Amino acid sequence: MRKKIVAGNWKMNKTSTSAVTELASAIVQAELPESVTVVLHPPALWLERVAAIIKERINLGAQNVHPKVEGAFTGEISATMLKAAGVSYCIVGHSERRQYFAESDAFVATKIADLLAVGITPIVCCGESLTIRENNTYLAFVEEQIKACLMGFTATELAKIVIAYEPIWAIGTGKTATPQQAQEMHAHIRLILEHLAGKDIAAQVPLLYGGSCKPDNAKELFALPDVDGGLIGGAALQASDFVQLIHSF
Ligand code: PGA
What we know:
8-stranded parallel sheet, TIM Barrel, single chain
């Protein structure tokens, strides 16, 4: 059975310790189904504060990592440091990092390697722009992205990752992929994994959907055969919405 995962990507939101404490406390106090793995990805500055609030029930996630252990990399944080702060999941290859920080697939691959080396689960993001969607080349585009990020890993390593499909045109726009669009891409991603790691491992890698996933559309997305949960942005900033999403399976 594949893991069901709901991960909240807070991005660069929640600007005070009181806002952070309020959100994390409300989520940890809610009744949450045992069957769902919940992950919170606060800004790096708030990782230890959130860790102290959520304890073991909820997993701590990071939004970014630098693929070197230590050294002269001003402003960066390594996988070893994240591990020491209690992090167990880390987002890599998010379209905002690709767009605003020029992160390439090759760079994403080095981050994945570093995370796996310390035992943190990478949540590897992929997804096409609106132009690519409209050109009808989205399947080939995402395939190339995934292969470029994952080609160098063994099947055993690939068994330890999570993939998030986040069409860029749906992120923060209020436009969600239709269930048909999401299922088509998720099935395609599973097929790519099958080629890279074999049928058994492809069948066990959780595939998350991200992009304007909200309480009112999560149920039909999470019910799809190849959608195993969500990577949630905007709706992760309100405890009530986020908790509702966790209950959407
Ligand atoms: P959104 O963001 O839910 O606000 O669209 C998702 C994400 O970027 O992870």
